[in-house]
Amino acid sequence: MTGGMDHGVALLEAQHAELAELLDGLDEDGWAAPSRCEGWSVSDVVLHLAQTDEMALASAEGRLAGYLAEVAEGMTGAVDVDDGAAQMVANERGRPGVEVGARWRAGAEHLRGVLAAGDPHTRVDWVAGQLSLRTLATTRLAECWIHTGDVADALGRSPPETDRLEAIARLAWRTLPYAFDRSGQELHGPVAFELTGPGGVAWRFAGDEPARTTVTGPALDLCLVAARRVDPATTRLSTEGPDGPAVLALVRTYA
Q1: pTM to 2 decimals?
Q2: Which among 5, 9, 103, 205 could disulfide-bond with 120, CB atoms 3.0 to 4.6 Å apart, if both were Cys?
Q3: What DSSP designation does 209 have?
Q4: Pairing mode, if any, of strands 191-196 and 213-218?
Q5: Which of 141, 88, 69 lies closest to 111, judged by CA?
Q6: Beta bridge partners of 130
Q7: How many beta carbons lie within 10 A of that of residue 240, not counting itself?
Q8: Best CA proximity match to 130, nearest among 139, 143, 117
Q9: Contact criterion met (CB below 8 Å) for 91 and 75
């Protein structure tokens, strides 16, 4: 195990703890509160996280194909990842919130243990193809961060802005080629992110080649855009270069 994997799992554990604090002591009205995920309650959001953490565990343990085959038996013609996720939640919706929360906590702890014990460079299967265990940990961090915000919004809370945004923003930058490829578009050249994190810290993500397009602004805004939670036009992000508008339209942190 390397320090890099230690760090990634520590970030994931901190994000899990933030969500757990929001869920502690919720009554059934709280679990039933509508989230900012259209049609999903707080319970539905946490169920989705439990399901996708279980999927990530199957990936880390080299049994994703079997897991997906089992899940597919209860689904009817999902057209994309989002549709599949919605069907998975619908198929298991209705359990008491506290039970859903316990399932998520147990699965999240198990996943962290398996990730921490693994080689961060090991390649595993995932929805978008193969990735490293280190990247899998970061995708789980990003998804939990997104849905922590969904839960906080439902409960009238404001989640803190933390340094975990750096890993999420870096993931969004690194996966831009994948996002463009999925949309059938091509980048005109390298892209750089010049972002401001908590407390005014500067984060720059760029490759070895000079950037043709640069995105500038708050890291929080970039992560919310990548999470499909805000319209880029409502943020303080700005772009320079030929791919600016397309980057903000296509950037994402999930498969």
Answers
A1: 0.94
A2: 5
A3: S
A4: parallel
A5: 141
A6: 125
A7: 13
A8: 139
A9: yes
pLDDT in tens, 16-31: 999 999 999 999 999 9
Cα 75 from chain centroid (whole Å): 23
Dmax (CA) of the chain:
53
Structure tokens at 10: 């520590």
Q: Are 108 and 116 in contact (CB under 8 A)?
A: no
CA-to-CA distance for 185 and 104, rounded, in angstroms?
Answer: 37
* Cα(164)–Cα(155) distance, integer angstroms: 22
Q: How far is CA 72 from CA 47, 62, 129, 140, 229, in A?
A: 17, 18, 18, 22, 28
- Beta bridge partners, 125, equal 130
Calculate helix-pair angle for 219-226, 133-154, nearest 10 degrees.
Answer: 90
Torsion of CA 123, 224, 188, 206, to 10 degrees: -60
**CA quadruple 175, 176, 182, 187: dihedral positive or negative?**
negative
Least confident stretch, 57-71, 79-93, 114-128, 178-192: 79-93
What domains can you pick out in the chain, each with its CATH number?
3-160 (1.20.120.450), 165-250 (3.30.1050.10)
Residue with tokens 């049609």: 39
Tell me the C-alpha to C-alpha distance, in Å, between residue 250 and each of 133, 177, 234. 24, 10, 16
- Nearest CA among 2, 17, 33 for reference residue 153: 33
- DSSP annotation string for 183-207: HT---SS-EEEEEE-GGG-EEEE--
DSSP secondary structure string for all residues of 143-167: HHHHHHHHHHHHTT--PPP-THHHH
Question: CB neighbours of 174 closer than 8 A, spacing ≥ 6?
Answer: 205
